[in-house]
Structures are given as C-alpha cells and as structure tokens.
Design brief:
Layout lengths: L17 E5 L7 H14 L5 E9 L7 H12 L5 E2 H10 L2 E9 L5 E8 L1
Parallel strand pairs: 1-2, 2-3
Antiparallel strand pairs: 2-5, 4-5
Length: 118
C-alpha cells in the first residue's frame, strides 16, 4: 500500500491500539461493514479497541434523528443506520463484540461503540 493511500476493504495498518471509524460503518451495508470490521480485527493487537462513531438507533417508534438519516443512507448510498442489536450482529461476524456504548450528546444523537476482540 502506498503511503497515505489504500482501501480499508483490503487492509488496515497492523498493530494499532485503537481503530477509529467515524461516520464510516453507516455508509455501508452489512456485508461491506463486516469486511471493514474484519480487517480491523485481523490487524489489531489482542487488547486493542475499535471505536465506531455513528448513531445507534433506539427501538422503532422512539423519536431519533437517526431514523431520518437512515432514509437518506438507504436512498443515496448502500448504507444504513443500525440498532445496538444490528451492530452486535456485524461485530460478532467480524470476530468482535461490544464492550461499551457511550452516548455523546455533544455530537447530536451519536454514540461511540467500543468494540473489543470476541
């Protein structure tokens, strides 16, 4: 991979302590999101973390700006907003699990999802 370039679908830098994916995972469908997360899992040290900064949708019917953003993602990209259970599904498929979910109200309705090795 050339310095400063590359694709997270191919590889990510090996041996990092933290991999930060801000506004990345929600751009992709489940298959592509799992591939990105699997590459992070393959590259990370045993005690490393993946931090996903995206909305975490509440139960259906609960007001949240993420529901409107979900429509935008579905109509303009291949992505989607996800519930905690949907994040668990793609993380588990990548060999990761949720450690903690931190709501970050200063970012609107976003959360930081801390993922660790399963």
């Amino acid at each position: 991979m050339a310095p400063g370039g590359g694709s997270f679908f191919d590889t990510v830098p090996v041996g990092g302590d933290v991999y930060i994916l801000k506004h990345i995972i929600h751009n992709w469908g489940d298959e592509q999101a799992t591939a990105i997360l699997r590459n992070c899992r393959s590259a990370m040290k045993t005690d490393a973390r993946v931090l996903i900064i995206d909305p975490v949708l509440p139960d259906p019917g609960t007001p949240h700006f993420g529901w409107a953003l979900d429509l935008v993602m579905l109509s303009t990209l291949t992505g989607k907003e996800r519930t905690r259970q949907e994040f668990e599904k793609i993380l588990n498929a990548a060999g990761l699990r949720i450690g903690t979910v931190f709501p970050v109200r200063t970012l609107g309705e976003y959360s930081i999802i801390e993922a660790v090795a399963a």
